[in-house]
């Protein structure tokens, strides 16, 4: 500190002391101490920098740095807390005791290959607001978003655009037969019958229309279509959960063979509008479709033929052949015949359902 600055400091300090209510004796002592320090400094008896106190400056700098670090940490923590408050699912597990596993709600990636095992259990109980709680389907895609088509490429006698159209038709069939609300409530899937399936495939379309008009044990529209009786149940919400995959390869004589394997999960409640009970029916469908070369087969260009249609209908009454799925509710007495088949997990997509028929109605391990 320069001498003139120090002198000014001493002068100001003495003035403040004189004008204050403090006793006069401390100011005299202060002058004596000041004079003694000045004489010691003149004789070189005091260490350099005694006035500025380098140690104290260093300590003040460390304190300032610590304050800066803690300020930065505080800002980061505040931002993190705000983000978690808006989206608790970012935290693993259930730290707030909500009773649900927030991680389980994270959507699954697209299915690109056959699974090797069944999905794990999911906590929760279905409600009208959260009808898929307690089900692996809570992580399935919503409706059409779950039908992801592979990239088209030329196959056999067909170019890339023709293969892409056939894949798009496959998706339209799946939507029309299993997701369209009109079909689900008992309507006729006209898009499938009028625009996708080949009318030249012997008996295919005629049989399907006959099944819809007069369903029976040997003429069941559920072999191809998902339908519920609106006088018995109502759909809960606007979402059907969907999980599966579509693949294709070279077919017969330059044709294109398309394989579709999808699981559809429906949330339902009794038709009574006052009922709050929720049940789920799970339908898995495996379809083998084919786009045949018109130069080698008597087919309609651009239409698909059905080579295979298998289905697994879970949580639907057995041995009722009225063309509708009949979900079972805990509050109601069971309908239909008692299950006679083995116990299966309807969410186990690693299982080969084979050519199952409605006569193989078994018990489900979960819904």
Automatic annotation (TrEMBL):
It comes from the Bacteria. Residues 1-56, 95-134, 329-367 are annotated as: Disordered. The chain crosses the membrane at residues 69-86. Residues 12-44, 346-358 have a biased composition (Basic and acidic residues). Residues 112-127 have a biased composition (Low complexity). Keywords: Membrane, Transmembrane, Transmembrane helix. This is Uncharacterized protein. The lineage of its organism: Bacteria, Bacillati, Actinomycetota, Actinomycetes, Kitasatosporales.
